[in-house]
Design brief:
This protein is mainly alpha-helical. The chain has four helices and no strands. The radius of gyration is 18 Å and the shape is flat.
Length: about 80
């Protein structure tokens, strides 16, 4: 019988991918990319990631996070009840 040896770096990579902090980062990044697309379409040219990031943080981040926290709390309530 052969035992598979797991590469420690691969295990660490999987842990990071499953972490809630990383999931939050990915969700936020996705929102920024959507904002970049919307603003670029509206203005008729590519606004660039940095400008979209700063604009999204200034205008939308706080409400997006509050909404996300609320939906996570509600989904937690449903699973415990």
């Amino acid at each position: 019988m052969t035992m598979a040896v797991q590469d420690p770096e691969q295990g660490q990579h999987e842990f990071v991918k499953q972490s809630s902090l990383y999931q939050e980062f990915l969700a936020e990044r996705e929102e920024i990319l959507k904002h970049k697309w919307i603003e670029s379409e509206r203005l008729g040219h590519d606004v660039g990631f940095e400008r979209a990031l700063l604009d999204w943080i200034r205008k939308h981040r706080e409400s997006w996070r509050a909404s996300r926290r609320q939906s996570i709390a509600q989904s937690g309530d449903k699973s415990s009840g």
